[in-house]
Specification:
alpha/beta; Enolase-like, domain 1; 11 helices
């Protein structure tokens, strides 16, 4: 089996800001597997938070070429590479080529029901309270807004401003590890006052023990603290939900297993994404079928998506067609 990987840059419609910085483009790595007439594709987003770079991901994928030529398959891949963006792209490419070779859809190969359209969250980028209110007002018709916080003392003002601008939308918050023990209670109270229904990763990974000692007024979701099944033991008692992202889990294979194990342990499921094209959203849509919250708005934040991308009708995302993936 042959393999190729390349770095792609997709401009954003507007700048995207979280507590760790601002980006104006989505930098992704796409992988293609080829065998005979069949081609399978996958996409990942290198995450600097975990020391990943586009060039490093391409190199890690290229290093798998000898193993692929010796017959490496998707099952063996789970042990051959660690969880992360590189394995995600390759794992999803395996699912895609397996579907094409078998003439079946990926959901059939995975033994799950055909995916249905889902309501996705739409992200309000971190900015001043007035700027976030303006963005929320423009998106107020959407049923679910994800509000980026983690910007210091103004977070209470930010979420209050968003709520005034979008009085009918369900709000969830992502602090991206931007809060501290000192402001945790105050910020959670402000979110509760605004009617927020879920708060993602308020404290830094490894510095979140406080969550097990307080009464949480809102369900708290692990993002950076939850990667794959091996991470679940450490978050029991601290979090009420986990955000499954294929780039963290290392692909659709682990993400499906993680969702099942997390549910068994009593966690609610959220499925999220990095800012990426529809090629990255397509496999995540399968995991999101069992989630209480889907956050798969990556393509909506781009100036232009790739051909044959997912169809979005407002905030409703539709499953991929075979021309894209799966």
């Amino acid at each position: 089996m042959e393999i190729s990987a390349q770095i792609e840059r997709w401009p954003l419609a507007t700048a995207f800001t979280i507590s760790r910085g601002t980006k104006t483009e989505a930098v992704v790595v796409t992988v293609e597997l080829g065998e005979g007439i069949h081609r399978g594709r996958g996409e990942c987003v290198p995450y600097a938070r975990y020391g990943e770079t586009p060039e490093g991901i391409v190199a890690a994928i290229a290093a798998m070429r000898p193993a692929l030529r010796r017959g490496l398959d998707r099952a063996a891949l789970q042990l051959a590479m660690p969880p992360g963006a590189a394995r995600n792209a390759l794992d999803c490419a395996f699912w895609d080529i397996d579907a094409k070779q078998s003439g079946r859809r990926v959901h059939q190969l995975a033994g799950i029901s055909a995916p249905r359209p889902l309501v996705t969250a739409y992200t309000i980028s971190l900015a001043s309270p007035s700027a976030m209110a303006e963005a929320a007002e423009q998106a107020a018709f959407r049923p679910l807004l994800k509000v980026k916080l983690g910007g210091g003392a103004d977070d209470g003002s930010r979420i209050a401003a968003v709520r005034r601008a979008a009085p009918n939308a369900e709000l969830i918050v992502d602090a991206n590890e931007g809060w501290s023990e000192d402001d945790l209670a105050q910020n959670l109270a402000a979110c509760a006052e605004a009617g927020v229904t879920l708060v993602e990763q308020p404290l830094p990974e490894g510095g979140d023990a406080t969550l097990a000692r307080i009464k949480r007024p809102i369900p708290v979701c692990a993002d950076e603290s939850a990667h794959d099944r091996a991470s679940l033991d450490a978050i029991v008692g601290k979090y009420d939900a986990i955000n499954i992202k294929l780039d963290k889990a290392g692909g659709l294979t682990e993400a499906l297993a993680l969702a099942a194990e997390a549910e068994r342990r009593g966690f609610a499921i959220m499925v999220g994404c990095m800012v990426a094209t529809s090629l990255a959203m397509a496999p995540a849509m399968l995991v999101a079928q069992r989630a209480s919250v889907a956050d798969l708005d990556g393509p909506l934040l781009l100036a232009k998506d790739r051909p044959d991308g997912l169809r979005y009708d407002g905030s409703v995302a539709y499953p991929s067609e075979p021309a894209l993936w799966g």
